[in-house]
Amino acid sequence: MKKLSVLFAAVMMVVSVGMAKAQKIATLDVIGVLNAMPEKKKADTDLKAFLDTKQAEIKKKADAGQAKVKQYTEEAPKKTADENKAREAELAKMQEEIQQMNDKAQKDFVAKQDAAYEPIEKKLNDAVSKVAKASGYDYIMDANSAAFVFKGGPDATAAVKKELGVQ
Q1: Domain map of the chain by residue range?
Q2: Where is this region: Disordered (predicted)?
Q3: Which terminal CB of the chain, N or C, has fewer other CB atoms within 10 Å?
């Protein structure tokens, strides 16, 4: 019985020493790395151009709607009640079309953004994994996170940028 308790104590000491092994943790400036990637810069430029085009289309339609509102408001006293009612319905339909264009533009932008950023995120994650394995890091955490109370220890940003070939 005494041998069993000594054996148990020895096993517990070995397990506790293994658990006390320090974890290797590094930080990474994810935003800085992403902003340095040429793929991200190109995606941002393409997305801005897409958004500008959609906003111009919506503005053109809205301006046409505003012109009709002004015209119909000025002509309303000279028109019959039925004509004014038909014009109000036409304006309501135009307003609904503008809202639908806006909603579709937002959905299209989100879909285009997801498609553009997916390969960039994959490339970054692959580089982070390579650096973590090569450097023996157990964890690489985002240095921009507000969850950190203290940021000491190694910074993997330079190694990830090197792996991606960016500066």
Answers
A1: 20-164
A2: 67-86
A3: N
